[in-house]
Automatic annotation (TrEMBL):
Adenine glycosylase active on G-A mispairs. This is Adenine DNA glycosylase. Belongs to the Nth/MutY family. Keywords: 4Fe-4S, DNA damage, DNA repair, Glycosidase, Hydrolase, Iron, Iron-sulfur, Metal-binding. SUPFAM superfamilies: DNA-glycosylase, Nudix. SMART domains: ENDO3c. Binds 1 [4Fe-4S] cluster. Residues 37-192 form the HhH-GPD domain.
Amino acid sequence: MKNTDIKKLTQWYDQNKRSMPWRDTGNPYDVWLSEIMLQQTRIEAVKPKYIAFKNELPDIASLANCDDDRLMRLWEGLGYYSRARNLKKCAIFLMEYYDGKLPKDFELLKILPGIGPYTAGAIASIAYNLPAPAIDGNVLRVLTRYYGITEDIRLPKVKEMIEEKLNDFYSPKQLNPNYASFNQGIMELGETICVPNGAPQCKKCPLNKNCYAYQNQMTDSIPYRSSLKDRKILARTLFIIRDDQSFLVHKRPHKGLLAGLYEFPGVDAHLTKSEMISHVESLGFTPLKITTLPEAKHIFTHLEWHMRAYEIKVAEIQHTLDEHYYLANKKELQSLAIPSAFRKYTDWYSLRD
DNA sequence: AAAGCGGGGAG
DNA sequence: CTCCCAGCTTT
């Protein structure tokens, strides 16, 4: 990138950056936490969660000592829950080996749990102003347009091409560079001006003079993204087994989809009412009254759940199932981390808020 | 290299 | 409804 554009970009950022709860606090923990939360997640969704999280776990030490259920509760609704587990794992590692601090080194950051090439570059540049690339989806979009790269943005080689183009900037030849403003500037540009879906506000862009896509009217064809494969559809039947006080809940396995989160028990099939009754009886329950609840669909990136649900009232709930099943009253239920997939049913009972 | 992993906004 | 967005780990 031309030196004049680098200067325009960093100046544009310093003058136009939006205020964020984690921005310019001078605390590397804030950069780390926000960058992990912002992976695959929109800024507006992150803001309230970030504030609540910081309030509960203000530093790396408190994160390292946080109870797992509490951690999941703080992450509830953000998705990709392994991010939270890796966050804690990393905090424990930092307390043990790095004096509770994030290392000021791109290569060392990159090998920490949950921190990959992008996040390592973001922490290195934003928290410590070190010369390191931080190539996220925004950077990929802005720079494929700027350089006129028409290849499939999903291919790893496109990221490598961008990295190659940026190499000069991250070498020490540059005079007094502001790596934090440069990296954040490209991302901020991607979020506010160089937006996806063919509606970028190129007239306002500080890079428009040398932008290939703008100069050649190609902003709706760049970046090119190949289409995704079809999602698998999984039929589910949920059992909301309850008495007047309590509900039966199930804690999902600690690995895999929605790991360690709570749900209403169920099976991976659509059961008819009579099949459902024999299943529930085989679990040791005697239905007193059965209500068919509305069906619900939940879409994951790679999977769709098509859910049926029955409310099964029993006289006095007790169970002899394994340790992954719990009885929770309404109040306890509100303190458990239950993913959005079940929102229709948790809302049904006004169990939240 | 490909698959697994959530959730929400726009149209 | 359909389409879009997208970083890290595991396989």
